[in-house]
Amino acid sequence: MKQIIPVIFATDDNYVPYCGVAITSLIENSNKEINYQIYILYDTLSKINIQRLISLSSCNVTISCVSISEYVKNINVTERNHITVASTYRLLIPKIFPHLKKVVYLDSDLIINADIFELYNIDIDKYPIAAVCCADVCDVSEWMNNYITKTLGVEKSNFFNAGVLIINIKKFNAGDIGNKCFDILNSRSDLYFMDQCALNIVCEGNVLYLNEKWNYETQWHEQDTDNHYIETDNNNLPYIIHYSGYDKPWIYPENYLSNLFWRYARKTSFYESILYLSTENRLKKVIEAQLNDAMETIDIIEVLSTGKKNRGIAIYGAGNVGRNLATKINRLKAFELVAWVDADHKNKVATPMQVEPIKRLYEVEFDYVIIAIQNLNICAEVKNTLVKNKIAPEKIVFVNS
What distance in Å separates the CA atoms of residue 23 and residue 15, rounded to the nearest whole number? Predict the structure, then answer.
């Protein structure tokens, strides 16, 4: 009987295309004489995405999508930074698959350039997990160093990335590691990397550390000239390239080693979707930069969540702050200045449009009204008045400079 190598991913609908690329890279580099069983954990996933993932199966690779809704219904974890709650699903693996001896867990934002069989067969009988150190292989910032050593209480040389793990199911469960991690996640609000921080705290001193080639994080190595991999030479590549951090290859295809992600992406049925999402993400980055220039105090992420390319903006105030803002917005292609109002509108002569009375705000549709007044106390009074007149608070933002 052929050996079966269990590999586990976790995803949601947003990450399905990138998970598909990771799986495709695994399949392409797999030993055709060995069977691989890929389990994809999900809470909510559309039927079409489930079908698309399963369709990636090959002659020696079987793919199953596993609903874990029952396991996560009582989990209440706050998402932080670019990390989603799906990352915590890896903590549930030993509970979901107690019958397995060990598994390989992989994040979805990576590609595999070697046979995962070699990783799986590393002996971890004495440890609950195996992982690659990340902080000790590069010059992390002073903040990061202090965060690891002081906030988390972990030795810098021991701090590992949890995007690639070998999990010893029996030892993980025996140590109650999953529950201990969730207890930490529920009791602390300072875990910058969420469950990765919790795992580092709980497993400190009880980890088998793997060679860096099994989890080569591009965010730490972009400036690494001493160990610069040749991007076109398959014989001189890390076994797993992990696009950790914010600068994903589907947003920044020009970044270090991003071309290898796209090499695999072109071989998947997700390619067109990734291209479309890449274009949308680039557009959002451009709009974000424009917004930062014009409205520095706006919560950019919330603005972008509307999904609109041409937003209607109204300005309250036609003094120096208002005039500067109106001029900037008028130059931006992403926005439409639909109204500009001031209590003293009759004495305000300004461009790029006529200043109108306050009542105009209640007659025109807009996505945001910006209170462009220097005095913060007056800003607060104006906001209260607008809210009383049925303008949604989430549509009101301030610009004071």
Answer: 12
Considering the domain architecture, whether residues 250 and 307 belong to the same structural domain is answered as no
Taking the CB of residue 395, how many other CB atoms lie within 10 A of it? 14
Tell me which amino acid residue 355 is: V
Are 30 and 61 in contact by the 8 Å Cβ rule? The answer is: yes
214 domain residue, yes or no: yes
Give the span between the Cα atoms of 77 and 185, in whole angstroms.
7
Neighbour-count burial of 225, counting CB atoms closer than 10 A to its CB (0-12 exposed, 13-18 middle, 19+ buried): exposed
Neighbours of 374 (CB within 10 A): 14
Buried b (16+ CB within 10 A) or exposed e, 66-97: eebeebbeebebeebeebbbbbbbbbbbbebb
Confidence of residue 304 (pLDDT cuts 50, 70, 90): very low
CA-based nearest residue to 249, from 208, 287, 278: 278
* CA 173 – CA 102 distance, rounded (Å): 11
Residues 300 and 265 in one domain: no
Query: What residues pair up with 129 in beta bridges, in sequence order?
Result: 167, 207
Q: Look at residue 121 and give its three-state secondary structure.
A: coil
CATH number at residue 375: 3.40.50.720
pLDDT tens digits, one per residue of 261-273: 999 999 999 999 9
183 CB neighbour count, 10 Å cutoff: 13
What are the residues facing 104 on neighbouring strands? 7, 166
pLDDT category of residue 59 using cuts at 50, 70 and 90: very high
Domain that holds residue 352: 296-398
What CATH number does the domain containing 40 carry? Answer: 3.90.550.10
Strand order in the sheet with 311-316: 335-341, 311-316, 368-371, 396-398
Residue with tokens 């070998």: 166
Q: What is the DSSP letter of 309?
A: S
Q: How many helices (H) and strands (E) does the chain have?
A: 15, 14
